[in-house]
Give the backbone structure.
Amino acid sequence: MKIRPEITVAVENLPGRLAHLTKCLADRKVNILAISVLESTDMGLVRMVVDKPAIALQLLVECCTMTITVCEVLEVALPNKAGALNGIAAKLSRKKIDIQYLYGSATAKGKAGIIMKVSNLKAAQKALR
């Protein structure tokens, strides 16, 4: 379990915008470890955790004209089996920690990974130990 920076980029909901954004990162060998893309009519939100966040942020500022924000999220590896996510959610619920959003990521064989934005990172880490 790790606290990681998450980069969020607001992009116009048009063909090629995600390709442009990911090319900026790929050209400099920045690996996307987890990604979530949410859409609305005119805009999309691309949330991502990358292996080189400082470089990624610099690149995105240079190649994107939209709003970019950074926050801290919790990366959790869990067994790839039924009920694993429920165990995490129940532990956090008992401690009154809100899961504001989450999405999946790739991890080692036999594991599943989630990225979570929670109301209290330190308390969440303690609850999930």
